[in-house]
Design a protein that fits this description.
Number of helices: 64
Shape: extended
Radius of gyration: 45 Å
Helix content: 55-70%
Distance between the termini: 80 Å
Number of strands: 6
Largest sheet: 2 strands, antiparallel
Length: 1346
């Protein structure tokens, strides 16, 4: 009888769960491999497995086939037995029904597959096969029988034969391959059949590849002479292959989506990509791709067939990706044809991707993902476009396709730049490419452009510029081409490997197309090479390709798209280090990245801001753009002059012109700015290169803004430019005079950062804002204190303004309410004045009307004539008037070109309240930018300027104010019941109020992060010593006292945890500065002594006294004390903690102080940290305090006593105090275990107090945390008590009374019988039988009860 475990495994083989089936198959194998199993069970297992593969119960076929493969792999000698059993059980007898035949054929196929999966045909090289010739022939004939019996099983049978031949070749048994193929007649299926058999061709391709590999491995041709002739002679001709490709396409289109693709596709792709002698894969690829497209996308195919064709298209890409690992050399020749030749297929694919509701849309998404994976070598997952748009709605801006870091492609999927550009060009030339959604277009651009090297980027840029030369002047095609080309040029400029030539070409093209155009039919093209030679830029490296010719567009072409791309691209480039400049800083990174096919890592190692917006030669990109402006105007005819004949034929017109009218005064400003910048760049001393770039970047950017079409915008740029030029004109003169250059520069450049700050804070474009930011960052050392103070005052705001705003807000609310509700209350003087004026105007109007009526004055005659001239036309009359226009249709043209007047809805008028909220939001946004400037200053120059302490204090006040405003608005909303105002009226909170509150909270968080970062940097030991000279010791002390007093107010308590953390850190900084200044003035004081923190000890002592005594002060006291725990713990341990805890009258404050001491001041010193462990006296005092508090909780009348624990009056408070005291004792014990033990007297007090607490607990509390802490403390402390052992010998235990005691003495002195004591025990008996948990007669308990 088989083992029960084995029988259970057989049942699990049919489970629907894959994991259960796999575990059962492994269990069958492990059971048979155990020594306890008899050989008879192996025979039983094989017989049952062979029969089980024919069962239709659940997943028995898969499970039993898997188990059979595991058993054959473990017992390879049983292969012949399995074949015999298969012959006995799967014989197709006459009279079998169709279903039974199908089950037997399917079971037979699964047995053969199990044999192949077990590796039975591979064997070991140099050893014989386990099967004889006849058995191999039976295996091949059995698979041929399955192939011919059922068409649904033919593909699987053909795949099994191919795998069998491959296994034989891998094992070195090449002569045995014909024995398996003897029953297949492969020569007739390949050469003699009119209609190609796709599955037979799959076998042929597999054998042909194996035959070539065998010859290449040195196998003698005589060994392979018995192979089929079609394989040996390569009987496949072009027509047969093309016909087979067409049939393969039909098979892919006919395969349902739920079934696997034909296996012959993989072998076909591997055969096609294999380099073979006498076969040119590139020459026959147009015919093969055409045949595949005819088979896949048939005429008048249903939507189901189209979806299956899309799936087949994706499978083709996946098979090509798999075959790339073996034939990476030919993939560049084959892969572009997939996108160039299948025009019909990709047209349908683009349409299905654009139509989300199409039934074939999911299959199109799959094909898109697989084709992208073919190009990139990464298996990606498609995402529904609606999901992507939903994510972008949440505020996640999609990065640029070429700026995102691409993943490293698979080794076989690396294709050349030429192939990538050919694929992209083929896709964009397609007529339906513009119908493809933008997210799918960006996916293709990312996949094809992100891995391009510098030569590929140059080639792509030149191609785009050449295509722009033939742009039509008007029409829909021009607009579409303009948008598409401008986007692609922007992507090239933002590429992580873009060379300087590409960036310059793109920027110059965008600039020229935005503000210049040619008149006439012939376009003017400018050479980038000539421009670089004229301005002294280094020439392009050898082998970089042809010159870039930048064309001009016709003057009538729309410029909005080009100007938008120009400013966005410039704004992105000036804030980053360009690739070639980064490559100079980190040499070799680019070459390594290109060789590995990964992303360039040069920019990752560049952590400096000195070369942002600079080319590789160190010059500013914006300066080269101004040089290009002059180059365009100075060389209007850069192209070669045409001959007289060509000149007559061409209608060149008037040449280049600027389409934006720039005032002469603005042009003069630009000229002066360029002269000043060039003279500043020539300065050799006093200024670093990054400072000169920052100085010149601001006026150059402002000069470009003079090209704005709006006159107000141009004038807004001209005014600060004039101020900047007044500063820069004198700068070269200051440097040339010599002397104290640094001091002179500071005087001259002090106002330039102020102008930059005004531009950064104001509502300017991102381009100018980045230049202003760079100027502020690099010239922060020249800033005046007044500028910094004014910025802080602006961030902080003015209390009077807020009061006026609140008053104005209330007045606006009153005005709005007065429109709807009659005001019956007292009127203000303003309201009375408005009402009186309204009544007076009403009286005057009535009197005027009465006078006109009495005098008989009539309306002028012109008014009646105007009314008579009004003519009303119906639809027919209007059409007749338009068509019968005698002025050449001008009336109709003007009517068609003009819109309907009044059709556009008028803008909604904002109320005063809404206007005020909008102004507040704009003000807070401005504060965010001001905070960013202050953050830059503090991070870069905070340690060098003495005004930093004042700045941080002002910013701290601003943070508290912003936090209070955010919480006050929320609190005022919560105070009103159901959203009602104070007057009982329904008052709805608007979205503007919520947005304003969120902005205030965001500003508070931003200030908190800024101050934490700056203070942590300044609180370092070396920095504190350096900044101690900013103020005298008295000034540091005054700052610390003022901050400490401010922290005790109500505003600090309601401002939040971040404000407390920042305020406590600032208090430590002021105290540390006072300490460093005191030590510096008095050299007799040691920096590590107790007297080195006088102001800190004074303030912390006062805070400790106020903790629990003053209202709304506990959080600030705890935060301020905590700021010193890690930085000056020895100072905190000198404070009178024990006296403060004993004197505390608030229970919660007493517990908080206990917890603070236990967790913060009793920390053991980490080894090697240099910190000092808590002194023994401090630890012993705290332990004694905990014992006093525990004994005080046992007293019934603890109120009014001088002992500790006076704050705990209720039972709940006493229980909480016990828990905190026991946790403190646990920390003491943990600390004492690493050092000396407690004195015996203190240990005895602890043992007595803890035992009393334990014994006073009722039975239901003897399982909680407090009880376990009591046991833990007693277990450690009792051995330290002197005489404890003798005491335990005298009585078994204070907590364990004698079990056999018959009588006890009551509190009155009378003896009671044992039975009565026993009865009393039963009433209060605990559920636990442990004698240690029974009540004890400790002295403390008796004293408490008495």
């Amino acid at each position: 009888m088989p083992d029960d475990n084995l029988l259970a495994q057989f049942h699990n083989l049919g489970d629907a769960d894959v994991k259960v089936r796999c575990a059962a198959a492994q269990g069958v194998r492990d059971t048979l491999l155990s020594s306890e199993v008899a050989k008879t069970e192996l025979a039983y297992t094989l017989r049952r497995l062979v029969r089980g593969v024919q069962s239709s119960r659940q997943c028995c076929r898969q499970g039993f086939s898997l188990a059979l493969a595991e058993v054959l792999h473990a017992f390879p000698q049983e292969l012949q037995t399995v074949l015999q059993l298969l012959e006995q059980t799967s014989e197709l007898q006459a009279g079998l029904r169709s279903g039974e035949q199908k089950e037997r054929l399917l079971g037979k196929l699964l047995v053969y597959v199990a044999i192949l999966q077990a590796g039975s045909l591979k064997g070991a090289k140099g050893k014989g096969l386990l099967l004889a010739k006849e058995q191999l022939e039976k295996l091949g004939s059995g698979l041929a029988q399955i192939y011919s019996a059922r068409s649904s099983l033919s593909a699987a049978a053909a795949r099994a034969v191919s795998d069998a031949c491959s296994d034989l070749c891998q094992g070195g048994h090449f002569a045995s391959v014909p024995e398996v193929l003897s029953a297949w007649s492969l020569d007739k299926k390949i050469n003699g059949a009119e209609d190609p058999d796709v599955n037979a061709y799959g076998i042929f391709f597999t054998l042909h590849l194996a035959y070539k590999d065998a010859l290449k491995a040195g196998i003698d041709a005589s060994t392979l002479k018995s192979w089929p002739a079609c394989v040996r002679k390569d009987a496949s001709n072009t027509d047969a292959i093309v016909n087979m490709a067409r049939c393969l396409g039909k098979a892919l289109a006919a395969t349902p989506l739920a079934e696997a693709a034909p296996s012959s596709l993989d072998s076909f792709c591997r055969w096609w990509l294999r380099e073979a002698k006498g076969k040119d894969a590139q020459a026959i690829q147009p015919k093969i791709w055409k045949a595949l497209e005819e088979g896949l996308f048939q005429e008048e195919a249903s939507l189901t067939m189209t979806a299956q064709a899309f799936r087949g298209l994706g499978e083709i890409g996946l098979s090509l990706q798999t075959a790339c690992s073996e034939n990476s050399g030919q993939v560049e020749l084959i892969l572009p044809g997939l996108f160039e030749q299948l025009e019909t297929g990709f047209g349908l694919l683009f349409k299905a991707l654009a139509w989300v509701k199409s039934p074939a849309h999911p299959a199109a998404l799959f094909a898109q993902a697989q084709l992208l994976a073919t190009v990139t070598g990464q298996q990606g997952q498609q995402q529904h476009p609606s999901q992507q748009s939903a994510k972008r709605k949440k505020g996640q801006q999609e990065p640029s396709p070429t700026s995102r870091a691409p993943t490293e492609p698979a080794p076989g999927a690396r294709i050349s730049d030429e192939a990538r550009l050919a694929i992209l060009s083929a896709l964009q030339r397609h007529k339906d490419w513009n119908r493809l959604p933008g997210n799918f277009q960006r996916q293709w651009q990312q996949a094809l452009l992100s891995h391009l090297a510098a030569p590929g980027l140059r080639s792509r840029c030149a191609e785009l510029l050449a295509g722009l030369a033939s742009v039509p002047s008007d029409g829909e095609e021009s607009a579409v081409l303009t948008v598409r080309t401008a986007s692609q040029l922007e992507q090239l400029a933002m590429h992580v490997r873009a060379p300087d030539d590409v960036i310059l070409s793109v920027i110059c093209m965008l600039f020229t197309s935005s503000y210049f155009g040619h008149e006439g039919a012939a376009a003017t093209r400018y050479s980038l090479r000539d421009f670089k030679a004229s301005v002294g830029l280094p020439a392009a490296p050898p082998g970089s390709g042809d010159d870039f010719l930048i064309p001009t567009l016709p003057a009538e072409v729309a410029r909005s798209t080009w100007s938008t791309k120009l400013w966005s691209t410039l704004g992105s480039l000036v804030r980053r280090t360009l690739p070639e400049a980064a490559e100079k800083l980190v040499p070799g990174a680019e070459e390594e990245a290109v060789n590995s096919g990964a992303e360039s890592t040069a920019g990752e190692f560049v952590r400096t801001l000195a070369f942002q917006g600079c080319l590789s030669d160190g010059s500013l990109l914006i300066l080269r753009l101004h040089d290009w402006w002059d180059h365009v105007l100075a060389n209007a005819s850069a192209t070669p002059k045409p001959s007289p004949k060509k000149k007559k034929r061409s209608d060149s017109g008037g040449g280049i012109k600027c389409i934006v009218e720039v005032e002469e005064a603005h042009l003069d400003l630009r000229r002066r700015a360029l002269e000043s910048c060039r003279s500043i760049m020539s300065i050799s001393e006093g200024l670093s290169s990054r400072q000169k770039n920052a100085i010149c970047g601001l006026p150059l950017c402002l000069s470009l803004m003079l090209l704005a079409a709006d006159a107000d915008e141009a004038q807004a740029a001209a005014e600060p430019l004039s101020d900047v030029l007044e500063i820069l004109v004198e700068l070269p003169k200051v440097v040339s005079k010599g002397g104290k250059i640094k001091k002179k520069l500071q005087e001259s450049l002090a106002s330039l950062p102020t102008v930059a700050a005004e531009l950064f804070v104001s509502d300017t474009g991102s381009f100018v804002r980045e230049a202003a930011k760079a100027t502020w960052r690099e010239l922060g050392m020249f800033l005046s204190d007044e500028t910094l103070t004014s910025l802080c005052a602006s961030v902080k705001g003015d209390e009077t303004n807020d009061t006026d705003a609140k008053d104005g807000e209330s007045e606006d609310d009153d005005e709005e309410d007065s429109d709807d509700v009659e005001d019956t209350g007292p009127r203000t003087p303003q309201q009375a004045a408005r009402i009186a004026a309204f009544e007076q105007a009403t009286k005057e109007g009535k009197a005027r009307q009465a006078a006109e009526k009495q005098s008989g004055v009539k309306k002028p005659k012109g008014d009646d004539e105007d009314e008579e001239d009004i003519t009303t036309l119906d639809d027919a009359g209007m059409l007749a008037q338009l068509l019968d226009d005698d002025d050449g249709g001008e009336l109709l043209e003007s009517f068609a070109s003009s819109g309907l007047e009044g059709a556009k809805a008028p803008a909604k008028k904002l109320t005063k309240r809404q206007q005020q909220l909008r102004r507040k939001q704009e003000e807070i946004n401005r504060k965010f930018r001001e905070v960013e400037l202050l953050e830059i200053f503090l991070a870069r120059y905070g340690e060098r300027r003495s005004t930093s302490s004042t700045l941080m204090k002002d910013l701290f006040d601003a943070m508290m104010k912003a936090s209070s405003n955010a919480k006050a608005d929320k609190a005022s909303q919560e105070e009103t019941e159901d959203g009602k105002g104070n007057d009982g009226k329904q008052k709805k909170q608007s979205k503007g109020d919520a947005a304003l509150r969120r902005l205030e909270g965001g500003l508070s968080q931003r200030l908190s992060k800024l101050l934490q970062k700056a203070l942590r940097q300044l609180c370092r030991g070396s920095n504190v010593d350096a900044v101690a000279g900013w103020h005298s010791a008295e000034e540091w002390a005054a700052k610390a006292r003022a901050l400490c007093l401010q922290g005790q107010g109500q505003k600090m308590a309601t401002s939040g945890a971040k404000s407390l953390e920042v305020g406590s850190l600032m208090l430590y900084f002021f105290c540390a500065g006072h300490r460093a200044a005191t030590v510096g003035q008095d050299s007799s004081k040691s920096s590590s002594g107790a007297d080195s923190w006088p102001i800190a000890e004074e303030l912390l002592t006062s805070l400790l006294q106020e903790w629990g005594g003053k209202k709304d002060c506990d959080q600030w006291c705890q935060a301020a004390l905590k700021a010193f725990t890690a930085r000056a713990p020895q100072l905190l341990r000198r404070l009178p903690w024990m006296e403060s805890i004993r004197a505390c009258r608030k229970a919660f404050a007493q517990r908080a102080q206990l917890t603070f001491v236990a967790t913060e001041l009793l920390r053991p010193a980490p080894p090697g940290s240099g910190q000092v462990a808590p002194p023994a006296a401090f630890v012993e005092g705290f332990a004694g305090l905990c014992a006093e508090l525990l004994e005080a909780t046992l007293s019934e009348a603890s109120e009014g006593s001088d002992r500790g624990g006076a704050g705990a009056t209720t039972p709940n408070q006493k229980q909480k105090l016990r828990r905190e005291a026991l946790l403190g004792l646990k920390c003491v014990i943990k600390l004492q275990q690493k050092g000396t033990q407690l004195p015996a007297t203190i240990a005895a007090d602890l043992a007595r107090a803890v035992a009393g607490v334990r014994d006073s607990m009722p039975s239901q509390q003897r399982r909680g945390e407090a009880y376990q802490l009591c046991l833990h403390v007693l277990r450690i402390v009792r051995p330290q008590v002197a005489g404890d052992r003798s005491e335990r010998q005298g009585s078994s235990s204070p907590s364990r009374p004698a079990k056999k005691q018959k009588q006890t003495v009551s509190s009155s002195g009378q003896a009671s019988s044992g039975s009565s004591v026993k009865d009393k025990r039963k009433k209060g008996r605990s559920s636990s039988r442990s004698p240690s948990q029974k009540p004890a007669a400790s002295p403390a308990l008796r004293a408490a009860r008495s």
